[in-house]
Amino acid sequence: MLEKMEEFNGDKVIEEFEALTKDAERVQRETLKQILEENGSAEYLLSLGLNGRTDTESFKACVPIVTHKELETYIQRIADGETLPILTGKPITTISLSSGTTQGKPKFVPFNDELMDSTMQIYRTSFAFRNREFPVKNGKALQFLYSSKQFKTKGGLLAGTATTNVFRNSQYKKTMKAIQSQCCSPDEVIFGPDFHQSLYCHFLCGLIFREDIQLISSTFAHSIVHSFRTFEKVWEELCIDIRDGILNSRITVPSIRTAMAKLLKPNPELAHLIHQKCSSLSNWYGLVPALFPNVKYIYGIMTGSMEPYLNKLRHYAGEIPLLSADYGSSEGWIGANVNPKLPPELATYVVLPNIGYFEFIPITDNIGSETRPLGLTEVKIGEEYEILFTNYAGLYRYRLGDVVKVMGFHNSTPELKFVCRRNLLLTVNIDKNTEKDLQLAVEEAAKLLAGEKLDVVDFTSHVDMSTEPGHYVIFWELSGEASQEVLNECSNCLDQSFIDAGYVSSRKVNAIGALELRVVRKGTFQKIMDHYLALGSAVSQFKTPRYVGPINNAVLQILCTNVVNSYFSTAF
């Protein structure tokens, strides 16, 4: 398989994808059969009484719907070195760590060759469609990739973030080469131990090869925005390095210094050109095309909790299109973006029916009431569902916690739009607000800052039950100082933008207290990111937690100790 990958044939990949999606129901049955045949000897499946049966009816009758919590002890035993078939027939040799931003600590998830294969299948599929619309020639990519360290678990298994396990796999490089998406930075920069030094050198490499850069990408939109915000602070130092051909003394990692010394040669003309370009920009609008004249698009996950960064990203991008990357999680992949021309807000993902077995729990208004999960081809357009996922790496009927909406069908497989994480629920009383509700409220209130030419750098939320009654707290970091008057208006606007009936009625009778907007110091969300990096998370996998619960005390402390001012709503 690897040998074939050298020659990439986009038309052939699209042809295979079309064939796969034409008879999704049959492919799903075969995929489940294969998963159960390969893993039938696993202790977990044997204990459920499947007795070698591989049909969907027996599977649904015997195997319960689970969350990570129910599988934790099994995964821990694998990590501790038990070699018996526990969740899979073949031994698991690698463990992935989730970002940890949802629960406050990273989760262990099994990772194997089959997951790596499906990752490459997703990459090749979406690239084939993307390259049809936005062809890239043999250029380079400025990729803000960071690989955190892999470590050994108690039982000697390799463990790292999901992105690290992918980046360090030999298949990854071959695929990237085949799909002409090679990173312009040397491995020493990607795998460097200090993210700040790696970021600086990513820019240096990008600027050295500025004419060759055809696309800019990172795992998440947040990472791209964070990179260009950093560029605003270090661009003059980068110019000096390029002018003199000497690497800044801030770069102290020997392996990075050695690798960069091979690339960096004195180039006063280039330094002068970059200085000129940056100096002539108005508030950094159009920074990307100014620096990289041949960039075709910017690429990364831009949906869900990444949507709030799109305005800033568009500001940097100018006219360059933003393309949302594929849909997956630390547990595995779900769908590919085969309609790259759609703006990120409208991005949909076509489920690949052979990378796992998928079920969908209809979302009803009554939380707690559940209906029978539907199969991949049984879902209805316009309806919302929570995804259940069965993969080749030991997860069976696993609740991903994501809510999706079916927007249409590609042949017989659904096109999904990511709606929100199901488990973020701001609730004090009978109110229930999701991540999407929070995002819409913040977007609405942030419009009031436009007059002062300010924007919300980042935000999160908390429910404060120490007061009577409890109330919502929204934390904002701003790009500059806003007037008291505007921030009072913002707190009122936030309060009124939560339109959930339970919230509005509870606010009216004071069963929920006035919403509180707390403005935090510049750099607070950087401290939160540093906190997660110290726990072993990777920058490329980092997502700002949109809700900070009581179990996430360390993050709550960072926020509370950096509050500059707070504003209570007077809207009700």
Describe the 3D structure.
The chain has 572 residues and is an alpha+beta fold. It has three domains: 148 residues, no CATH class; 157 residues, no CATH class; 144 residues. Helix content is 39%, strand content 19%. The protein has an eight-stranded antiparallel sheet with strand order 9-10-11-16-15-14-12-13. It is globular, with a radius of gyration of 24 Å.
SSE blueprint:
Layout: H1 2-5, H2 10-22, H3 24-39, H4 43-47, H5 56-62, H6 68-79, E1 94-97, E2 108-111, H7 113-133, E3 140-143, E4 151-152, E5 158-161, H8 162-167, H9 170-178, H10 187-190, H11 195-208, E6 213-220, H12 221-244, H13 254-263, H14 268-279, H15 287-291, E7 297-301, H16 310-317, E8 322-324, E9 327-329, E10 332-336, E11 349-351, E12 357-362, E13 374-375, E14 384-390, E15 398-410, E16 413-421, H17 435-446, E17 456-464, E18 471-478, H18 484-497, H19 501-508, E19 516-520, H20 524-534, H21 553-561, E20 563-568
Helix pairs in contact: 2-7, 11-12, 12-14, 12-16, 17-18, 20-21
The geometry reads as globular
Question: Termini, distance in Å?
Answer: 63 Å
Supply the number of helical segments.
21
- The total tally of domains equals 3
Adjacency order of strands in the biggest sheet: 9-10-11-16-15-14-12-13
